[in-house]
Amino acid sequence: MITMENVCKSYKVAKRNAGLKEACKSLFHRETEKIQALSNISFTIQDGEMVGYIGPNGAGKSSTIKILSGILTPDSGTCMINGRIPWKNRIQHVKEIGVVFGQRSQLWWDIPVIDSFELLKDIYSIPTPNYNRKLEELTELLQLQEILKTPTRQLSLGQRMRCEIAASLLHEPKLLFLDEPTIGLDAVSKLAVRDFIKKMNAEHGTTVILTTHDMQDIEALANRVILIGRGKVLLDGTLDDMRRTAQSGENTNASLDQLVADLYQNMNIL
After folding, report:
1. Low-confidence ranges of the chain (pLDDT < 50)
2. Which of 91, 113, 137, 229 could form a disulfide with 269 if both were Cys (CB 3.0 to 4.6 A apart)?
């Protein structure tokens, strides 16, 4: 179970005007601005849930995921995942989580995918029988047979994303963070990835937190939606709850993307 209570996180961001004179000036006197990324974020996610964590750019989604994965330490508040504090028990915590970033890779660029998998096996200390069983399962479900011996840099985006998902699941995590997992994928690849995620959740009870701007991913996968804006939780409910909040009796035939855009505007978080 995941519990976040009143979590706050802020950053100091350096600011300066353009030009050589301003660059030299900043060497001696740097101006900074405080950015409040998260402000009293609270929610609870039960084991086995599939949750869509959405919001506009700069809303605080990535900061939340980094705190949940133990990368960042919040300024205040508490966060517990399966009885552990992520940033204080990182070694044990990372053994139970998987992370897929659509725009970042955990695969080594110039070596065959299977070699990256072998390295991850050693990093996570996966017993050989467990690794072989899971590799066989993932290879079949994600159709990786033809690409395991190919260097990552030679894969198409869709092929790489399937390998990224497999890499994040080799150690059989209980919790999976998906940050834009279908970005840039064609329709066939998107459907394959969505079907696989649903299958993993149904068969293994994997808890999934999905961060994306693709509302079709949310509609296909998430039973619950948490909307964040300006560092605050603004809505926590189902897609129907989100539709009712966005529509307010108008524009009932709008697409899901249009409803979300209307919701952002109504809540003044764009």
Report:
1. 249
2. 229
